[in-house]
């Protein structure tokens, strides 16, 4: 019986207990059900239950099974939703945060890569890229690829999205140099300097930097750490302050990992149509839904091209490719023009090699395995947190993606501890990065994209020992 | 005796005669000198001289040699310099020109690539790229490369520039996604919407498109087709209308191939320091100086970081790499920030493979051969033009680069003939592309970057038969 196994089950049960999952009766599933449904051995299940009983969290009734002892409806595990200031403001990202952002882009708490996962898919990918480099090299050296991208790659991306219930025409796709580039040209296409853009709070810091450079004003909109953007808050704010665009990550947003319910998605699109603003959907985590889920893009519900979808392979396959895409909706022509103006074209060889990789099904096969790895790494991280700091932190439990949003006691300022943590060789991503108005001082983001090696476990411990004092 | 040989000599002599090169005496070099200095056979030299004599351009004096018969100081071979309008204006690029620009980016008059030059250097390059892809793939997949670029590549680029008398520190280089990207972030770093930028006329159309998107105003500055930007015209204009930046290609600018004399370069930099504007140097053709020349960048004379140099491998090595660079001077930090905001980072594998290619001397070896190829292709194109249309056109004779600027009779409108030429399967680059104020209607750009195959010769003939009626 591995230590991880019973700790994992203990974690799952504790989480369900706190979330009042077993109400109204308070009865836990039977030992046999736990074995069968979750795939644990009987010994593991009994060990976990005995530990929770010893802790006083559950009790057993003879011939009836286990019941929740203390029902604590207010003991919510998730971090708080914060209401950001209402009025539009300029975005000014302090230089110190820009440094921190750059280091945080790898989502790793270690400054240099430790052990990493299996790389068979990358060997296959690189074989296809090399093959593409060898094909018609002179032609590629002397002629630019179509600015909007390679037709085969566009086809392959569109085909991939069909598995997520989105039907688009390849002629409506523009290939970019990654998702940041996609977001940049989408904001340039839809807004002019001085315009106001709504952004969920907490927000992806890359978007804040784009807005600063494009001289756009921001309205931060409240977002639930588990369910994402509050459409009610958005609707209320834009009555007073009209917006040109709203940037949203409905699927497993960074930093929270939130997933927007379908009802909220439909409400958001209706609002965009009614008030005539553009929705820019950041779908970079959309492929990373944990089984059995599949995450449909918001754009699926888009009636008339009001949604611009931006995506990339950087989080789901490789950051080395520098390939992203935009489904530009109404703004497709303008976006293609901006692709040309900002970068002329993308590498034909890279696009062709990647297209073959997609066409042959390697990407889908890799994803199917990768989401299980991520889910497992998420569980391990949650367990580590539960074992050591369950009384001191609240965190999000996402159903996909790579991000966990952690709330600490209000007396703790994560950004202020940044350098002290860095001296320990640990890279923290403080919550203040994700706000344009100084929120989230007692928050931080952790990621489970990297395996929780002993070295990383030690780093997490160092991190919290500095933060919690 | 090949036909090309005597036609080539005939062309050279005719050009020198028209340029009054043999004044004051009017005496041509002796037959022996022509043989020795230019490497032609005696038969070729005599044949060419006899043809020029028959044409009435030269005459022989017994025991003295050949002399110029008609000295025509006004019969200048080069196209006219045009004085663009003075006041700053918004840039609006018509949609039809955007289509034409996209097709013209390959510099080829054929829509699909015909025969191309030797590709050994590309095989070597691609071998290095593939090797880099195989090195530490997981690391590269999971971690972003430093936003400002790979240190080895920056070192290699700086080392390369030393051969052109420019000494820069690698820490002052930012790697970009090509020269267009470099120009884009340089303009973003130095200007705000509504600011005025000086651009030489004729101008690179990619810059006009950037300025349109960034909502910058343009002052077009007169430029000589052979000697580039007129610093006098610039100095006069900015007295009345202050500028934030001036974009200039001192080395073999497209479309003219002009090369700025050193005196003008120094005057330009003095003016920039005095009037406090930024010079953005587009150095994309700087490596393509024809022997025995080497082209020093303008930035060599830069006293205090007033010049931003933008370059790329797209014209000199491969358009498939999508790698360019900026030496940002005073604006380096801001430019690096904008690289991050617009594209996050560049592919580490591509940068590393390219760095090895440079370090091992392959790029310099290839360039040494390529400039001779370009020079030869330029000669062939000039001969073709001289044989068929010497009375109807004026063109530039650049000492490097890939562009020739051609002036036709004022009654001819090249843009209006664009579709008629296209129907013949020929892609023309009309002069109007290179102006923001409707100039150069009777101009066009031709390139000699591609071998002048029979197919391309036929295309040039079709082009002028449509244009000249």
Keywords for this structure?
globular; DNA-binding (chains A, B); transaminase activity (chains A, B); 16 helices; Arc Repressor Mutant, subunit A; PyrdxlP-dep_Trfase_major (chains A, B); 469 residues; four-stranded antiparallel beta sheet; nine-stranded mixed beta sheet; Aspartate Aminotransferase, domain 2; homodimer; transcription (chains A, B); 3 domains; Aspartate Aminotransferase, domain 1; alpha/beta
Description:
Chains A, B: In the C-terminal section; belongs to the class-I pyridoxal-phosphate-dependent aminotransferase family. With 469 residues, chain A is α/β, with parallel strands linked by helices. The first copy, chain A, has 3 domains: 3-68, Arc Repressor Mutant, subunit A; 89-93 and 122-363, Aspartate Aminotransferase, domain 2 (3-Layer(aba) Sandwich); 369-468, Aspartate Aminotransferase, domain 1 (Alpha-Beta Complex). Chain A contains 16 helices and 15 strands. Chain A has helices spanning 3-18, 31-38, 42-54, 95-104, 120-134, 137-142, 151-162, 179-190, 205-213, 231-240, 262-275, 332-343, 348-359, 362-389, 418-423, 454-468; strands at residues 58-61, 65-68, 89-90, 173-176, 196-201, 217-224, 228-229, 245-248, 278-282, 307-312, 324-327, 394-395, 403-407, 429-430, 443-447. In chain A, strands 3, 4, 5, 6, 7, 8, 9, 10 and 11 form a 9-stranded mixed beta sheet that branches. The first copy, chain A, has a 4-stranded antiparallel beta sheet with strand order 12-13-15-14. A two-stranded antiparallel sheet of chain A has the order 1-2. In chain A, β5, α9 (205-213) and β6 form a beta-alpha-beta unit. In chain A, α1 (3-18) crosses α14 and α5 (120-134) packs across α13. In chain A, 52% of the residues are buried. Residues 71-76 of chain A have low confidence and may be disordered. At the A-B interface, α5, α6, α8, α9 and α12 of A face α5, α6, α8, α9 and α12 of B.
